[in-house]
């Protein structure tokens, strides 16, 4: 059973930055896609960013502000979040798919104040 552990969430003012990290308990070499989802109160979980086969995909709402990267050697995927907005407030979940199995982290809270 693969475990994903997120870190880096917190409270930040609008316009600020945060960097989320997700460390897997196993090699992520065969994890595709690998990425981040978020869920705000009262809303459905939505894809924020993912990486697969060397390419990255972003939600329109975060394009140009967020950057996803992976380090296979460290079994880590990170999400650099810049120019944060109040509407980015949510619990952020690390996600990985290996063959036909989906894995989720426990989530990390990101709160952006005005």
Notes on the structure:
This protein has 114 residues and is mainly beta. 0% of the residues lie in helices and 58% in strands. The protein has strands at 4-7, 10-13, 18-24, 31-39, 46-52, 55-58, 66-71, 76-81, 90-98, 101-104, 108-113. Strands 2, 4, 5, 6, 9, 10 and 11 form a seven-stranded mixed β-sheet that branches. Strands 1-3-8-7 form a four-stranded antiparallel β-sheet, with no helix packed on it. Strand 7 and strand 8 (76-81) form a beta hairpin. It is globular. The mean pLDDT is 95.
Short description:
The protein is mainly beta and 114 residues long. It has strands at 4-7, 10-13, 18-24, 31-39, 46-52, 55-58, 66-71, 76-81, 90-98, 101-104, 108-113. It has no helices and 11 strands.
Note the main attributes of this structure.
114 residues, 58% strand, four-stranded antiparallel beta sheet, seven-stranded mixed beta sheet, mainly beta, 11 strands, single chain
SSE blueprint:
Layout: E1 4-7, E2 10-13, E3 18-24, E4 31-39, E5 46-52, E6 55-58, E7 66-71, E8 76-81, E9 90-98, E10 101-104, E11 108-113
Parallel strand pairs: 2-11
Antiparallel strand pairs: 1-3, 3-8, 4-5, 4-9, 5-6, 7-8, 9-10, 9-11
């Amino acid at each position: 059973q693969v475990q994903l552990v997120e870190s880096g969430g917190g409270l930040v003012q609008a316009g600020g930055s945060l960097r989320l990290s997700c460390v897997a308990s196993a090699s992520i070499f065969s994890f595709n896609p690998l990425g981040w989802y978020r869920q705000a109160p009262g809303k459905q979980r939505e894809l924020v960013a993912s990486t697969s086969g060397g390419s990255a995909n972003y939600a329109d709402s975060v394009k140009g502000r967020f950057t996803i990267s992976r380090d296979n050697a460290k079994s880590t995927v990170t999400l650099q979040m810049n120019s944060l907005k109040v509407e980015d407030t949510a619990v952020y979940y690390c996600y990985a798919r290996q063959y036909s199995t989906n894995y989720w982290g426990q989530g990390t809270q990101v709160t952006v104040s005005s």
